[in-house]
Design brief:
374 residues; DNA Polymerase III, Chain A, domain 2; 8-stranded antiparallel beta sheet; 6 helices; 16% helix; elongated; DNA replication; DNA_polIII_beta_N; Beta sliding clamp; nucleotidyltransferase; DNA-directed DNA polymerase activity
């Protein structure tokens, strides 16, 4: 195999691919990238047997063939080459090292057999549709902060996508929860998605997909079954297994009768939370919200550092209900308000019940936050 490719193009593809490769796996081949030069095209593939990423890039192919070399090592070498350099890769046969040259630089990478490189295989993916890249990016960005990291509840380790109907509208919903907060965002159901099953896309797949979306074309092609999902973003194809589990009936935890409504500017609120929370270094330290008509008082305390308090009056808030004191973990408050553009609305019931949080200017998103004892 012998080919040459422009350094920037090769680097961009390796950046997409190498993070999928399993660097700490006991199976060495899974740390490698499969390079295949055939039919005038160069394809790069990496997998950890849960996710598979493939990208096709232009290259000048002198001799067809295929090989596998360590993905992270090749990426680091190409990353450190000068811009606008032509990178030449040459392997005499499948069991010899891969020679890399660029200008006056040269190195050799040990290769592993192509025959040992696994293929995930997507299988039959009967449900296929397209979705605007900006819409998919928004669904992910506004929910992924709530993905659980507790491996014991593996069915929460991803975003739940499903088709639903509300008030006569067909919708695509993205939901994530870790038991402390819940994020639910919806959009118009894309054409062709009516038959999609409810799927839980794993956290790692979400992270890899999100990186692709910043450089993707205006539409993403999605194909899925009950066990696999595939995203095609231009020259990149990302295939992933789905989480084999049942997502909880999240509607049951969304309160229906929260009537104490607080409206406040996102920046005013987030800045005040950050200031009072700075009194304590404990991540789980609560911030207390004391509400009365026309006044919101935020406070936090630390046995070692003292007490911090800030007031937001009726020039910056709207609250006209019975007084209430309620506490939330500062990080959870910030995670949710980070999703809000301008004004945030809190709907409370009492100090121990879940609170609904909304972006005033974006009714498609709804968040639920569990309080803490204060």
């Amino acid at each position: 195999m012998k080919f040459s490719a422009e350094r920037t193009t090769l680097l961009k593809a390796l950046a997409h691919i190498q993070s999928v490769a399993e660097k700490r796996n006991t199976i060495p081949i899974l740390a490698n990238v499969l390079i295949n030069a055939v039919d005038g095209q160069l394809s790069l593939k990496a997998t950890d047997m849960e996710i598979e990423a493939v990208e096709v890039i232009p290259a000048t192919i002198s001799r067809e063939g295929a090989t596998t070399v360590p993905a992270s090592v090749l990426y680091e070498i190409v990353r450190k080459l000068p811009d606008n350099e032509q990178v030449e890769l040459d392997q005499a046969s499948g069991d010899t090292p891969l020679q890399l040259r660029a200008g006056r630089f040269a190195t050799r990478l040990n290769a592993l057999s192509v025959d040992d490189f696994p293929s995930m295989g997507a299988g039959d993916l009967p449900c296929r549709f397209k979705i605007a890249t900006a819409v998919l990016r928004s669904l992910i960005d506004r929910t992924r902060f709530a993905i659980s990291t507790e491996e014991t509840r593996y069915y929460l380790n991803g975003i739940f996508f499903h088709a639903t109907e509300h008030e006569g509208l067909r919708l695509l919903r993205a939901v994530a929860t870790d038991g402390h907060r819940l994020a639910r965002v919806e959009t118009e159901l894309p054409a062709g998605a009516d038959t999609m099953p409810g799927i839980i896309v794993p956290r790692k797949t979400i992270a890899e997909l999100r990186k692709l979306l910043d450089e993707a074309p205006t539409e993403i092609e999605i194909a899925l079954s009950e066990t696999r999902v595939q995203f095609v973003a231009g020259a990149v194809t990302l295939t992933s297994k789905l989480i084999d589990g049942t997502f909880p009936e999240y509607d049951r935890v969304i309160p229906r009768n929260n009537t104490r409504i607080l409206r406040v500017g996102k920046k005013d609120f987030a800045d005040a939370v950050a200031r009072v929370a700075a009194i304590s270094q404990e991540r789980s330290r609560p911030v207390k919200l004391a509400l009365e008509p026309g006044l919101l008082t935020l406070s936090a305390s630390s046995p070692e550092q003292g007490v911090a308090k800030e007031e937001l009056d009726d020039n910056r808030i709207s609250f006209d209900a019975e007084p209430l004191e309620i506490g939330f973990q500062a990080r959870y408050l910030n995670d949710i308000t980070d999703q809000v553009e301008k004004d945030v609305e809190f709907a409370f019931s009492d100090s121990s019940a879940p609170t609904i949080v909304r972006d005033v200017d974006s009714p498609s998103a709804l968040y639920v936050l569990m309080p803490m004892r204060v």
